[in-house]
Amino acid sequence: MGVIFFLIVFSLFVALVFLGAFFWAVKSGQFDDSYTPSVRMLFDDKKSSHNNKTLTNKRDA
Amino acid sequence: MNKAATLQETTCYHCGEPCLSGEIEAHDKSFCCEGCKNVYSLLNSNDLCSYYELDENPGRTIAVGLERKRFDYLTDQDVQHKLIDFKSEKTASVTFFIPNIHCTSCVWLLENLQKLDEGILQGTVNFLKRTLTLLYNPSTTDLRNIVELLTTIGYEPDLKLDKLNSAKPSSIQRGLWLKLGVAGFSFGNIMLFSFPEYLNMSEADSVETFKIFFGALNIALALPVLIYSSSDYLKSAWAAISQKGINLDVPITIGILALFGRSLYEILSGTGAGYFDSFTGFIFFLLIGKVVQKKTFDRLSFDRDYKSYIPISVMRLINGGEESVPVSKLEIGDRIIIRNQELIPVDSVLESEMALIDYSFITGESVPVKATKGSPVFAGGKIAGQYAEMLVTKKVEQSYLTSLWENESFSDAHSEKKITGFADRISPYFTYTVLVIAVLSCIIWLQIDPSKAFTIFTAVLIVACPCALALSTPFTLGSSVNILSMNGLYIRNTDIVEGLSKVDTIVFDKTGTITESEQALLRFKGKDLSKDELDLVKSVCRASIHPLSKKIFSHLASHQLVELTSYQEIPGKGITARRNGQTLVLGSRGFVIEQSLLQPESLPKKDSIGSQVHIVINDEYKGFFEFQNQPREGIAELIHRFKKTYRTYLLSGDNEKEGQKFAGLFGGWTNMYFDQSPQQKLSFIENLTSQGNHVVMVGDGLNDAGALQKSNFGIALSDDMSSFSPACDAILDGNELKNLDQFIQFGKVSMNIILASFGLSLLYNLTGLGFAVTGHLSPLVAAIIMPLSSISVMVFTSLATRIKAKKMGLRIWV
């Protein structure tokens, strides 16, 4: 039965890690704006392709 | 321009507006103006055309010409210091409020600005708050370049005086989330550790070490909840008691302390397992209520004052050149230039021959006023049409607009309205009742079984803790504020819904409130004009920037444009134009008579108050266009309904002439007041409230601001949510004014729902008290009753408000 002490302490520790993650999320501003990210995820990420394109354009020129 | 027939169907690829003034072809696309074309070219050359794929015609028209000098003041160190959030050698961060943010494309473009300016490192948009936070490298770009870039692509940031003066708002919300997180964490874990207790396992196993171990863990978990999560309630209760008052937080705090103290005692003395599960759950639910209550409408601003309207900078004429200076640095005697659509920042004297000034910000009246050389013009007016030169006569702090706010009664009005909610009003009775019951049962038990007396005493305090009571108000009002916002009424915060429900007197402003300021009714009176002549009138009006010409132009939308051979506009008076032997004179009465050599008698006498535009073709008088402010749709029915139950008044800054139209509506002249100054409006409301009336004021202009503040519930009407509205308790969508009686009715219903849920939670309290005074309140019973009462109150209030709203025909889904 002694192992239960270890398990409980360990489970609490895991829970604390999640609490810490929650703190980090709040402090990094993830709870400040609940709407814009839902819009942002719709964008195609063309950032890299743009850079490549301009490079090739320049080479062509 | 010969392609007139096709013009009607063509819309601008950038902004989606019809290409009225001749389309511009570029890149196989059509644009309505050079501005829009330039934005497209800029985006196109930088491979940013996804902008146009995300939403159709996402741009906003770039009608106003760009005046690059305008942003000179952004190089000023003082101004920079106030705008920039932080700055180091390599990075600086700045946050702009950009009212134009309106769609997905906006977010995309503004977050890809680094392709347009190498110095910009990162952009983050907050769509609801309409803000853009930019990280940039100050050594490669500067604030002025960024603002210019934003303006060029149609996203001019709103840089206003008050933003410069006030400190950056701190986020209270984050702290609340953290407190909720801690409470939830402890609640969940303590529940787990309490399972042996619920199932009576500890007795069966008789493992003493477990008890100690779990007890210690529970204390360790509950401590942060007491010290951190519940700190707001403890502080608030302490503040109330030290002022010799009792608010709802006092009985809550008594409950908190009783719960915690009793649990601590039980665990330390080994007499029981304590109620830490109930304690943490209780705080957890309370905080959820608080989160619901804190819901705000980020994109709306409810406490603006004059500073929000005055621009930061203005163009000053100096030694023949122009320079941009911050408004606060203007001196008496400076000559300034205000262009079309710009706001006059300080009281001045007009130096130009003539200017048209739109005072709708101040009076609500949209038809521009004509000012001539040497006449005074007031801060807050907007120049319509030609640019104007003026001489500063007062500093910004002393201008009319500013002094309106500095006025004593206004600053008086600015002080916080004291709102005591129903819950706070009953809490003294509640608290005393609970204390009396606790003491009585303690005394009675001292006779029966003295060993149990203390236990009973604390049990009563614990179970009587008004958790559900404290939740019923925020949850009911939270959901009614939500429902009302779906229907077009945005209320500043949940506490003031009660103010709406108690109304017995309703006061309306006239211009812009009862009448629609934008959509003045346009009628032509006189001889019938042929199609050909109407084409001519339309073409002439197109070239003019006078607001009345613009209205005539859009009124004649179905007509064609023709080519003119000559065109001359005398600003503020009228236009003469020629085409193929036809001469058209269009303008004010005096102008038409002067230009066409007609006898004044041949023109009809001016018998109504609306603005008129007269038309003469080939020296023959044809008639006039008349503009009249149109009452809003459904307003007559609304006032008719209101009259049955409330006293209704009309307060107008205008003269009495237009009053006849409304005399019938308001039941005669006694309830209508004309020629009211902002000060008089304020006193009128003050008078009503001091007689014990509960007044709702509906207004729209800055001239109503004082009255809105003084009333018990001030509603600012707004046709464009993101734009202007004076300080108020709620903002109402102009199109929804006709449903105002429904909204007030719903406010009353909400208060009834709160009463019902109070009843429900008192029922729980009584049941709990039954257990407590008879000495049967085990931790298990407490752990069931507390969350059950909280959750059932949450469910009841949310459902009840939605069901009621649905029955009343209000929208309950977005």
List keywords for this structure.
heterodimer, A: 61 residues, mainly alpha, 0% strand, disordered C terminus, B: 814 residues, alpha+beta, Alpha-Beta Plaits, 5 domains, seven-stranded mixed sheet, disordered N terminus
Quickly describe the structure.
Chain A is mostly helical. Chain A contains three helices and no strands. The radius of gyration of chain A is 23 Å and the shape is elongated.
Give the helix/strand layout.
The complex is a heterodimer of chains A (61) and B (814).
Chain A: H1 3-27, H2 36-40, H3 47-60
Chain B: H1 4-7, E1 24-26, E2 29-31, H2 34-45, H3 50-54, H4 77-83, E3 84-87, E4 92-97, H5 104-110, E5 120-126, E6 131-136, H6 143-152, H7 161-165, H8 172-198, H9 201-205, H10 208-229, H11 231-242, H12 249-269, H13 276-293, E7 313-318, E8 321-326, E9 335-338, E10 348-350, E11 354-358, H14 360-363, E12 369-372, E13 376-377, E14 382-384, E15 388-392, H15 400-406, H16 408-414, H17 422-448, H18 450-463, H19 467-486, E16 489-491, H20 497-501, E17 505-509, H21 510-514, E18 515-526, H22 531-543, H23 547-555, E19 566-570, E20 574-579, E21 582-587, H24 589-596, E22 612-617, E23 620-631, H25 635-645, E24 647-651, H26 660-663, E25 672-673, H27 678-690, E26 695-699, H28 705-710, E27 713-718, E28 730-733, H29 740-773, H30 779-807
Parallel strand pairs in B: 17-24, 17-26, 24-25, 26-27, 27-28
Antiparallel strand pairs in B: 1-2, 3-4, 4-6, 5-6, 7-8, 7-9, 9-15, 10-13, 10-15, 11-12, 11-14, 16-28, 18-23, 19-20, 20-21, 21-22, 22-23
